[in-house]
Amino acid sequence: MTAPLLRVAKLAVRYGDLVGVADVSLTVPQGAVVALLGSNGAGKTTTLNAIAGLVAPAGGTVVWRDRDITGKPAYAIVSTGLALAPEGWRLFVQQTVEQNLRLGATVLPDKKRVPALLERVFTLFPRLAERRRQRAGTLSGGERQMLATGRALMSDPKLLMLDEPSLGLAPAVVESMYDTLGRLRREGLTLLLAEQAVELALEVADYAYVLQTGRTVLEGPGAQLADDKDVQRIYLGLETETR
Ligand code: ATP
Fold first, then answer.
1. Cα dihedral across residues 77, 80, 84, 89: positive or negative
2. Number of domains in the chain
3. Which residue among 21, 26, 45 is best mutated to probe the pocket of ligand 1, counting the most ligand atoms within 8 A of its Cβ?
4. In this structure, which of 91, 108, 134, 208 has its CB flanked by the most CB atoms within 10 Å?
5. Which pLDDT does position 243 carry in this prediction?
6. Spatial contact of 217 and 26, defined as CB atoms under 8 Å apart
7. What span, in angstroms and rounded, lies between the C-alpha atoms of 38 and 126?
8. Which pLDDT belongs to residue 123?
9. Is position 229 within any domain?
10. Ligand 1 center from residue 164 Cα (angstroms)
11. Which CATH number belongs to the domain containing residue 215 in this structure?
12. Whole-model pTM?
């Protein structure tokens, strides 16, 4: 068995006196798609941001490829192959699509790789190629999600974290985004996916963790959680049919 790429243990994050996450543990094996589920405010974004070095943990550990990266700054973490397509996209709206993508490659030591990585992103998202000279601020929500994902891919990550890639997007756009994630996975990329769209996430996830008020309360293979209606009702707030 290969060692997990990422191990998070007893992660805690505070925002002043408020608790962002209290106790989150998860493991991401090489080549897997792992989903982080939970309703609004459960702590999904805080967990991904803490792994990516965007917020400082108050406790717990983040171990990435056998190195303790807990509390390291974001630029140091992304340069080790761990990238995040964040909630709200955080694009530079006055810059063009291509400029935003190039910013994702800032951490690459070998800049000669940039053209090939750019081509890869344009192959995955032909819409971005069409819009490469357009300002990011003029893009639709779906295109912004593509751009945030493409920018993360420009650092050539081993593990891509996506924070709610389906949020606010039309169903056809979501489907196309998930097709692309499937393709990336087949190419060998490991994915950690925060989603409120539980059914969608469980369709693609090998393994899933459920967060509730900042704690991992449940975990299991994606297919198993997808079949467990009680789990969905209790932890994820989904309606189930009653007879
Ligand atoms: P959402 O889907 O709404 O983003 P989430 O599962 O990602 O939800 P978080 O955004 O991580 O949840 O929020 C976890 C908890 O931390 C919530 O109680 C939230 O109100 C709080 N929180 C998040 N960001 C901040 C912040 N910058 N300052 C204070 N509290 C915050």
1. positive
2. 1
3. 45
4. 208
5. 40
6. no
7. 32
8. 96
9. yes
10. 13
11. 3.40.50.300
12. 0.92
Amino acid at 32: A
Closest CA to 103 of 67, 58, 152, 68: 152
Query: What's the domain range around 210?
Result: 1-76+192-237
Residue 205 lies in a domain: yes
Q: Which ligand 1 atom is the nearest neighbour of the CA of 49?
A: 11
pLDDT recorded at residue 242:
46
* DSSP-derived 3-state class of residue 216: strand
Q: Which of 75, 18, 79, 17 is nearest to 43 (CA)?
A: 18
- The secondary element (H helix, E strand) that includes residue 26 is strand 18-28
Cα separation, 73 vs 217, in Å, equals: 28
Q: How many angstroms is it from 12 CA to the middle of ligand 1? A: 13
How far is the C-alpha of 86 from the C-alpha of 89, rounded, in Å? 5
Bridge partners, 8 (sequence order): 26, 62
pLDDT, position 235 = 66
Residue 122 placed within a domain: no
Closest C-alpha to ligand 1, atom 1: 40
| Rounded Cα–Cα distance for residues 29 and 145 (Å) | 25
Give yes or no for a contact between 209 and 225, defined as CB atoms under 8 angstroms apart. Answer: no
The answer to whether residue 33 sits within a structural domain is yes
d(CA 240, CA 220): 20
Distance 213 CA to ligand 1 centre (A): 10
User: Locate tokens 């006055």: which residue?
Assistant: 94
